[in-house]
Write a structure and sequence with these properties.
There is one protein chain. This protein is mainly alpha-helical. The chain has one domain. Helix content is 30%, strand content 0%. It has two helices and no strands. The longest helix has 7 residues, at 22-28. The chain is elongated. It starts with 21 loop residues before the first helix and ends in an 11-residue tail after the last helix.
């Protein structure tokens, strides 16, 4: 999935060292993660 906006340091998705905070990313982008695993979503193309 290509995201329109990158992970945000202000929202805590990126740590001070520049690493991704996966727990925060998954919590804040819960709807997008659900779309990845939704086989009925017409906007998802699985290769």
């Amino acid at each position: 999935m290509v995201l329109a906006d990158p992970p945000s340091m202000a929202d805590g998705e990126v740590t001070a060292k520049g690493n991704l905070n996966f727990r925060k990313l998954l919590a804040q982008r819960k709807a997008l993660v659900a779309r990845l695993y939704d086989d009925a979503d017409p906007g998802t193309i699985v290769i």
